[in-house]
Structure formats: structure tokens, C-alpha cells
Structure prediction request, 109 residues.
Amino acid sequence: MALTQCPECNKRISDKADQCPYCQCALVDDPEKLETQRRINRIKKSSSLMTHSFLALILFISGLAYSSWYAEDGMTYDKIASQAVALIGLIWYLTTRIRIMLFKRNKKQ
Prediction:
């Protein structure tokens, strides 16, 4: 009995199983269909990571723009809040970009 990865959830399962015990994905004997399913899941994950990266960048830019153009001078609450939003957006963007780099480096998934 060998272990293989589920094409849907990527958990290790027996190659004798008819379906994945974790996500109930039906396992097909056709390797071409399994490879197609893996490619589709990889594209979905890549698209999700790119969307997260885009949203984080928008959050960073909007916080920075509000802080510099619309917030009053000095340290008011709206300026502090907009700078906090910009910082959260920057941290989210950087972690998402690192996740994208690691995802692209790992071609097996």
C-alpha cells in the first residue's frame, strides 16, 4: 500500500482508496484526469493568492493616501487610524508576496 496525495485537498491518502477520507473527492484511475484536477487546483490557488495581494495593496495605498491628503495635520485619530490601515495593508501584502514566491517555488502541489 503506497501513499499518494489527494488532488483536491493535497493530504496523503492510500492509493487503494476510492475516495479521499478527508474531502470525499472521488479518485479516478485515469492519471490524465488527476493531473488535470491538480492543474485546476493550482490555478485556483494562484488566483486566490493574487487576489489577496491586490486587495492588500489597495488597502495599503488607500491608508497611505488618506493619511497624507485628507487627514488633518498633527496626530489626530483619523490620521493614526489611516496609518494603522496602511501598515496592516503593507504587512498583508508582504506576507502574501512571500506566500506567492513559496507557491511558485513548490511545483509539486
User: Anything to note?
Assistant: The beta strands are 3-5, 12-14. The helical segments are 31-70, 77-105.
